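Entry for the shared binder. Reason: the reviewer on the internal report wants the predicted structure included alongside the sequence.
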Amino acid sequence: MKIQYFTPSPALRDLIKSYYLVEATITEITQDTFFADGCPEIVFNQGLDFYRNDKIEPWAKVIGQITDPLTVQAKGQGKSFGIWFHPHGFSMISDIPAKELTNTAIALDSVFPVDLLEFIGECLAGNKIIRLIHLLNERFERMVGTHRDTSQAAIARFVIKELSQNTSGSSLADIAALCNITPRYLQRIFADKIGLRPKQLQRIMRFQHTLSALTTTEKKELTRITYDAGYCDQSHFIREFRQFTNMSPSGFNARDYPINSLFLSSM
């Protein structure tokens, strides 16, 4: 199993974290768990089948925000091509309110025309990944250029930056005041553009900081990780980590997640 990352065009880099291609041979049904990362995705699977709650998912799908550990099963030989968005990124190419996608996945034919999906499938079958990325860059740039509510998107982008720079916590009122809007309006923007509450996204960002540290640090110094991430103390860190993973930090091992581990070190 291997993964490759591809950088989006400069015009899309504040909306898309990366494109990625996973190639795998999974001969027996393999179970894995994914954790909240604050980032919606578009995924195209070819030759690989993924199941959620024992139901096969569409080969082309939009995966909204997840707030709880998500268990999936996979089997097959093939590839997955994904578009990994920043928290507000998908909302810039779709009019679907982000809150309607939270903790769910929907078939992409509700967003993209059938002929585009067929072309994407042909590119994957022919290993024309660079051509596919070029096409998606062009299409997304056009979609972003004609999208409504750019002022709300700008607010969402600004607040996300503020939250990422201050994971220890800021009050909703303070964040809203920076944008010269009311806290209630900020909540509405986040529901429509991100699918999470501002404080919820901040908690996820802080959790992802610790998850990355536990994945890449050989010696798991929990005290250092706790304060680097902005938790007030170790018990706070352990409590929130358990809420997002259903386990303690000391019980986490990236090798237990054969598919998810491909992404963990890139969070």
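Summary line for the report: The two ends are 19 Å apart (CA to CA).
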